Amino acid sequence: MTGLEDIIGQRETGRMLKQEVAAGRMAHALLLTGPRGAGKLPLALALGRRLCCAHPTDDGEACGRCTACLGWEKLAHADAHFVFPIVGTKNTCDDYLPSWREMVLENPYTDLGRWTERIGAGNAQPMIYATEADRILRKLSLRSATGGWRVVVVWLPERMNEPCANKMLKLLEEPPSKTAFLLVSEEPERLLATIVSRTQRIYVPRIAEADLAEALQTRYGHPADEATALAHRADGSLLKALELAGQSGEQALCFNLFTQLMRLAWKRDIRGMKIWSEEVAGLGRERQKVFLEYAQRMVRENFIANFHRPEMNYMGTDEQQFAVRFAPFIHEGNVTGITNLLARAQEHVAQNVNARMVFFDVILNMTVLIKMKN
Fold it and tell me: Beta strands 150-155 and 179-184: pairing type?
């Protein structure tokens, strides 16, 4: 694991957290928020390791050599507890912990879609249930194993159901001594306002292009030109940069589904449209939401492509080649309608509306919108 100031593009945030720890001003609960792929979870893990470290360095980082640091390297420190969304009310996070550790140790820049796919959740919505709050309460009622800080990392706390959220609130209102709750949230607006009020909010900003390009070169081995291009398109997200670089098949899947959607809608191929909607319906809700976000981005990029300003576009090679012929079909007459159609579908997916109906409705309406005149 890296130090607090070594998190890609988050030197200032890491320095601020180190100063809080060194000055003894560490809040009992932090809420780390910010864009996808900016480094919220890596910061939380680095902070947890620093709090538990027995021999921090002169510059305030974890030493990396003590028993506590070695335990954090494997996410297996006795006073480190992890809470995250799971499937099944009869299960607990302990049942899924080996898989979660494996995912995070492979790459702490991760998201719910990858976790859902790893545990084979399908269309089931991973949640954090009240049993997790009970489990954490039991563990915190025991004495610290090392006599130092205890750290509870709650990944995606917005996934807590109401009973769990209420129990977690009580924990935050009356926290045990030398216990830090680190909440890592993608959608803080979904949290109870009373939970947010009990935390110190830390905003983790997008990674600057220069920092992202440097990391892609030095840590991931991309040539300078390629790293610069990826960083430009990644919108401050290392996760997105790795997807664009082909280290994830998610980007290719979304591109293929998008091109099929538009081609089938143009041809008004009813049989193909039905097959397409069933294929997308079978992806699982998290991947469906990723696709719809991607589709909205591609609509915007193709609309902008009509202005012939390359510096304003953030498309890859395959996307640019497709845009050469497709962009003229996205214009002032239909760009708002298409974007609203995709955004509405995203809302319906989040509300658990029947996916086959949602996506067949999308492609059916697209047959009208795509042929509208400017």
Answer: parallel
Q: What is the Cα–Cα distance from 212 to 235, expressed in whole angstroms?
A: 10
Quote the distance between the C-alpha of residue 346 and its chain's center: 16
Count CB neighbours of 269 within 10 A.
16
Say if CB 225 and CB 73 are below 8 A apart. no
Residue 92 to residue 124: CA distance in whole angstroms: 16
| Residue 143 in this model has a pLDDT that exceeds 90 | no
pLDDT at 67 over 60: yes
* Distance of alpha carbon 60 from alpha carbon 241, whole angstroms: 30
Distance CA 15, CA 131 (A): 35
Over residues 48-74, mean pLDDT: 93
Alpha helices in the chain (DSSP H): 11-22, 40-52, 67-73, 93-106, 112-118, 130-140, 162-173, 193-197, 209-218, 224-233, 238-242, 250-267, 270-281, 285-305, 317-326, 335-350, 355-369
Report pTM: 0.78
- Provide CB contacts within 8 A for 38, sequence distance 6+: 9, 10, 204, 205, 206, 207, 236, 237, 238
The DSSP result for 167-191, as a single string, is: HHHHHHHSPPTTEEEEEE-S-GGGS
- Render pLDDT for 75-92 as a digit per residue (tens, 0 to 9): 999 999 999 999 987 889
Q: What DSSP character marks residue 29?
A: E
Q: How far is CA 30 from CA 14, 27, 48, 202, 361, in A?
A: 13, 7, 11, 7, 42
Neighbours of 334 (CB within 10 A): 21
What is the tens place of the pLDDT at every residue in 334-372? 999 999 999 999 999 988 899 999 999 999 999 999 999
- Tell me what percent of the residues of the chain surpass a pLDDT of 90: 73
Picking from 177-191, 212-226, 247-261, 352-366, which range would have the lowest pLDDT averaged per residue? 247-261
Q: CA 22 to CA 98: how far, in whole Å?
A: 32
Strands 200-203 and 29-33, bridge-based pairing: parallel
User: What is the pLDDT confidence band of residue 1, given thresholds at 50, 70 and 90?
Assistant: low
Collapse the DSSP code of 274 into the 3-class scheme (helix H, G, I; strand E, B; otherwise coil) and give the result: helix
Cα(300)–Cα(109) distance, rounded to whole angstroms?
26
